[in-house]
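User: Sequence in, structure out. Go.
Assistant: Echoing your sequence, followed by the structure tokens.
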Amino acid sequence: MIAPQPRHWERQDTSYCPDLILMDIQLPVLSGLDATRQIRSDDRMAKIPVVAVTASAMKGDREKILEAGCDVIICPNN
């Protein structure tokens, strides 16, 4: 399933839960960090691994991403 924005995920079939979520951290409408927090607050999806994909390599970004609930960070620029 592809949800180009988190708001699209909300409209999807709620009985489906993915095995893994690839999260773009720099989404244009709702940040990937906020979307991950929403996922973590949903009991059905709270334990699904979230892989953060970001080009952001600023100091402190790693900590913010992990604090939001992402399990792994992929940063192609590092």
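User: And one key feature?
Assistant: DSSP finds three helices and three strands in the chain.
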